[in-house]
Structure formats: structure tokens, C-alpha cells
Amino acid sequence: MRKVLGLFASGLLVLALTACGGGAQQSAAIPENKIVVGVTSGLHEEILEKVKEVAAKDGLEVELKAFSDFQMPNIALVEKEIDANSYQTIPFLESYKKEKNADLTQVGQTVLNPMGVYSNKIKSLDELKEGDKIGLPSDPTNSVRALLVFQSAGLIKLKDGVGDDATVLDIAENPKKLEFIELDAAQIAKQLDDLTAAAINTSYAIKNNLNPGKDAIFLEQKDSKHHNVIVVRTENKDDAAVQKLVKAYQSDEVKKFVEEHFEGSVIPVW
């Protein structure tokens, strides 16, 4: 009987060790010579195409996967469908991590895509009339970013101390009694004709043939904290492929490409 119990205990030990081994395999490093990077379609995809060229010289193959909204690149990263993503600001990342309890880490700064206010009806914010409809993104991070842009432009004043948790309900002063309408960030540019003006993320502006440097009637200030970053799963932050990706992105070749191709509408921050 003791022999049988001993064998049974040994079997449990083997199963436990096997289970531990299986967990370790799930945390494997990204292959050193290839990395799959998620981006939102538009300017981030264009920049990563250049990064891909530079990385190839260092022996790193970069495979791109483009997404049409702001949520999927993080979901795909958490679910290990991609190895990294490059499209989001630090506040957006922190908000996602808190909401989803996601173990993600930023590993390098990239560019500032200044949010702009655009209009098909007016040429200046001074032309706004009482009750005009103003669009802004509906997701929390970009909504508060738009509100800060409106405040910087002198259109509104937010309640003291609301910080990064501000919503349209936190508008303390709205002299022109503007009507703020929250819309899906990817669709705002397509609905400009139904609005007097709207705050639009640079990636979606460019995708809809709007040049921030030329077409925006107001641009987010350069001291904005909403820089974009490269993000990976925390377990992979020190992997060789990740370091090569950051090095390629923060190269002089990519910086020159961004400055010339986007004509100052996208600003390198490294």
C-alpha cells in the first residue's frame, strides 16, 4: 500500500513540474530576427514601413498588421497575436492598463501627432456662433485630450482639478454655449459636414486628406504630454528584437522621413 501511495505522490510531482514547465514556455522571448508590430492604418503604418526598411539593415524583419480602431492593437498584443504596437499615447496606454489589468510596457517614445480642430464651414475659431455643434472623440482618453485642446483654444474652461478624468460634464465655462457631441474617433472626419468644427486625431485627419499643418484651424500645443510610444508585453521589454525595433524607429533616417513626409504635421520626439 505504501508503495502505491509513493508512486501516486511521485506522479503528482511529475504533473506539477510539467505544469510549471508549460507555463515557462508561454513566456518565450520574441525571436531575435523577426517581430510583428500592430499599428493603426494611416500615418503610423506609413512610418513603420520606413522603420521596416531601417530594421532590415540590422537583420530584423518587421511584419506589420494594420488595425482600423484604437482598441484592437492592444487587444491583439495582450492575446499575443502581435509582439508590439506603435500608435498610442502614454495616457491612452495607462488608461487601457488600468481598465483591462493589462501587463504592458512602453519601451520608446516616437512622435507627437498634434490633435487639431478642423472645419468645413469656418476658417477661424472666432467665427463660432452660440450653439454651434462641436465634435470630439468619444473614448475617454481622446475625449479629455480634445477638451484640453478646446480649453487651450479659449473655447471652454474645465473645473479645477479634474485632470485626466475630465468629461464634457466637467465643463465649468462655455461662453458660446457650444454643443459638444461625442463621436467615434475614426468617423469624426467623415461627419465634418454635419458639425461646425471638430477635434480630430492626426492619424484620422491624414487618412481623410486633412493636413494638420495646413488645414487645422487650431493645433494642440507642442508641450502636450500626448506623445506616442512603442508598447510591448512587459515580459518582452528587454528582448533583442524589441531593442532593435526601438533603435530602428529612433534612427536619423526615420526622423528625416517623418519631418519631410508629413511636412511638420507629425513631430519626432526622440
UniProtKB/TrEMBL annotation:
Indicate how the chain sits in the lipid bilayer.
Answer: Lipid-anchor
Domain of life where this protein originates? Bacteria
One GO cellular component term: membrane
Its annotated compartments are: Membrane
Keywords of this entry: Lipoprotein, Membrane, Palmitate, Signal
- Residues spanning the signal sequence: 1-24
What InterPro entries does the record tag this protein with? Lipoprotein_NlpA
Lipid modification (S-diacylglycerol cysteine), residues: C20
- So what family is this one in? Belongs to the nlpA lipoprotein family.
Q: What is this protein called?
A: Lipoprotein
